Structure prediction request, 220 residues.
Amino acid sequence: MSYKERSIWVSLAITLYIWFNYFSELYWSVQQHTLTTSSMKSALLTVVIMTIALEILHHIVIAIIDNKNANYDEDERDKQISLVGNQNAYYILSFTTIAAVIHLLFPLMSQGLVDALSLPSEYAIINIIIFGALTAEITKFSTQIFYYRRGF
Amino acid sequence: MGKKIVNNIRRLRFDADEMTQQMLADIVGVSRQTIVAIEKDKYSPSLEVAFKISEYFNVPLDTVFQYQ
Prediction:
């Protein structure tokens, strides 16, 4: 497994771990009716801080484990795989943007979704965007891993 | 069935004193995994990398890569 591929696997694991924590915290806040703007801001701040801290730690640990390739720069195949990953992520983000706009312009169309989420409308829109961005990120990493495993 | 790009890099490495994939990767400026992918016909390199490989082995480009 190349340095780059290993790095992507760890980033995917970090992303899943952090966002699973965020959405489970959100879920329990909704269930217990304790969701407020400040509790959501606090949860989002935790996500940002944990992402930065874990990404720094991940790069340090991988550089120590595989110190021979610590200064490895992307080659042309890495760049192409990265481009395909970004392209797939872009489709998801575009879809999310359209979904968010539809939700804002035609709230009745997405009333079912708001009811299912059990969130006030202003929280629903924020979390639709966050969920879309997260799905895009996971899609990017998954696409890259797929092409590294299958060959490109 | 469609044509695809195949190559003789494995044989050329063998003929060049059993050169390792890592050595070739360092010479042409890609990762060892990219050389592995090229040898298995899973990745078609850029023209630049293709020319670097043929230049290193001192053979014409169509000796290294064929479209068949």
Remarks:
- The mean pLDDT of chain B is 92.
- The domain at 5-54 of chain B is CATH 1.10.260.40 (434 Repressor (Amino-terminal Domain)).
